[in-house]
Amino acid sequence: MIGNTTWNTTEPARRTLLRGTAAGLASGLLGPAGAAAAAAPHRTGVVARRAGRYEVLALLDARGTFPGTREDQFGGATEEAWRRADRIDPRAAGPDGTWRLSFWCYAVRRPGGRVTLVDTGVGPAGSPASGWAPVPGRLPRVLADAGVGADDVDTVVLTHLHEDHYGWAVDPDGTALFPDARHVVQRTETASLTPADSALSYVVTPLRAAGLLDEADGPVRLAGGGLRALPTPGHTAGHQSVLVDGGRRRIYITGDVLVHAVQLADPSVAYRFERDEPTARATRTALLSRARAEHALLATAHLNEPFTRT
Ligand SMILES: [Zn+2]
After folding, report:
1. Distance in Å, CA 300 to ligand 1 centroid
2. Quick check: is 214 in a domain?
3. Separation of CA 35 and ligand 1 centre (Å)
4. Domain that holds residue 188
């Protein structure tokens, strides 16, 4: 997801409670807290699924409405594709053809309690996403609700370096919010950044300086045998997704391989801000058909229900 216009947020009152939580997160405020909350969907912003020995927690950072019409963003979609999309994600259809979307991050809790975090949302007020995304996000509070402390996180996977995916990786002053974690990003992603990309100064340079940036070339074995990062280019040059292989159940944490259910209904539909449309289309088609063949769940970043089937 990336855009450049003003957003309408749907939960401003709750979000105002969260101003200043970035510092609290870094100082350990996210200690163990009501793990039972993980079982209560949406009210707390946490939706849990299990894949074998892994617990996958969807964490709702923010919700908002994209200005303009959805047809502006997905110009190639047919009426039939929109009808199917509306059945898959009815809440995405806002008034006057607008697009309502969520911003999900994922925590994969492994046996023993260590956590791999996939993406870090829109971030606090003043983050680079604040020019167009519904900030501040709620991720620090939602992690606390899920019983995940900052020091439980030993790996952060950044699917790509758009502003709505790295917002809570660092404070606005560049301090890492997960100081015990290696931050896995594809080298092709960092190499594609220009000095004008806010990601370079905001998140890449500080994490590099702190020795926390792990720039990967291709697939990455993240923990044990069941957790892997897989290159899924197209949305950006070095986009990656995460496979949680729980044996009988697999979950693909897709990042922005698809950003709207219309691309689930018809994987050939391009999104306006894809860097390389043909590659994005080929990646999406391949990932969705693989997930379908494996009866896997998809865990997406921007659909309004985090987990879905192909
Ligand atoms: Zn996005």
Report:
1. 10
2. yes
3. 28
4. 8-309
> Domain count of the chain?
1
Please tell me the distance between residue 112's alpha carbon and the centre of ligand 1 in angstroms.
30
Q: Find the 263 Cα to ligand 1 centroid distance in Å.
A: 14
Measured CA to CA, the distance from residue 182 to residue 202 in angstroms comes to: 17
pLDDT digits (tens, 9 = 90+) for 135-168: 999 999 999 999 999 999 999 999 999 999 999 9
Q: Is 240 inside any structural domain? A: yes
pLDDT, one tens digit per residue, over 32-80 is 233 333 333 455 799 999 999 999 999 999 999 987 899 999 999 999 9
Exposure b/e, 46-84, CB count within 10 A at least 16 = b: bbbbebeebbbbbbbbbbbbbeeebeebbeebeeebbeb
CA distance 175 to 165: 17
- For residue 84, the CA-to-ligand 1 centroid distance in Å is 22
CA distance 83 to 194: 39
* CATH code of 25's domain: 3.60.15.10
Please give the distance, rounded to the nearest whole angstrom, from the Cα atom of residue 142 to the centre of ligand 1.
19
Q: How close is the Cα of 1 to the center of ligand 1, in Å?
A: 3
Strand partners, 64: 9, 101
Cα 259 to ligand 1 centre (Å)? 7
